[in-house]
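Appendix C. Worked example: Rho-GAP domain-containing protein
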Amino acid sequence: MIMSLSGSKPVISPQVNDQSKTQVAEANSGKVTQENELELAGETRSVRLAETPLKAEEVGKGRMPSQTYVTNFLARINDSLSSLFNNILNFVKEKVLPQDKAKAAMAQNEAILAFVSGNEDILKEVGFLRLSGGFGEINELKKSARTEGFEGTGPHALGSTFKQNIRDNLSEEDAESISKMVDTMVESRGRDELDLPALDEMPKIAQDAIMLGKQVAAYSDVNKMDANNLGIVFGPNFRLDDPSNLSRTSQYNDFFAKMIAS
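Step 2, the predicted output written as structure tokens:
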């Protein structure tokens, strides 16, 4: 209510009255406003500072539209599910895909063995299995893991891919089995007959290598690849231990040379 004297002029001016109403309203809302005059850039300006009893994190709380809240909530769920799916996918890649890759590599080696078998043009190639093929051809063969259509592929690329498949996919179990067979042969030296395993007792990955070696050795007078040379070619590919152990390397080379010559 505005008080006045003599029923004419108000005791409180409209400007002061409005300011009082504003201060009362701010006091009721818990907000305190302070107005000061500051000189800025040569001019006097009024600056109003407002304080609120609410904590900073509570300011604006509850003002988010419900639709926006739901959208954000669903987005967080989607992110969580995506993260879970990626973790599962990575686990599958680590555990399952290497096994599939090894099977594909061994299937390719079997196909190369079948393609080369009886193919005198390849078997008579000088340095077959010893000389390296072109990187592009080898890379294409390994990536595609194809088991057919080898016509036109360089023989050295086929031989290099065959050896690379062994190096990349030799399992610890197969490596351990072959290591024990090498030890048995070494222990039998000096006897009337070396103790060598039957071919079908060896891991399949080694059987294919020895069978290919036997066919290549049959043309050693042309390709210059006898059993000893082939032993040197294949031996190191079947080791997972320290390659700097030269005496062990010699034992492996001798083992595969004897298996190919037998």
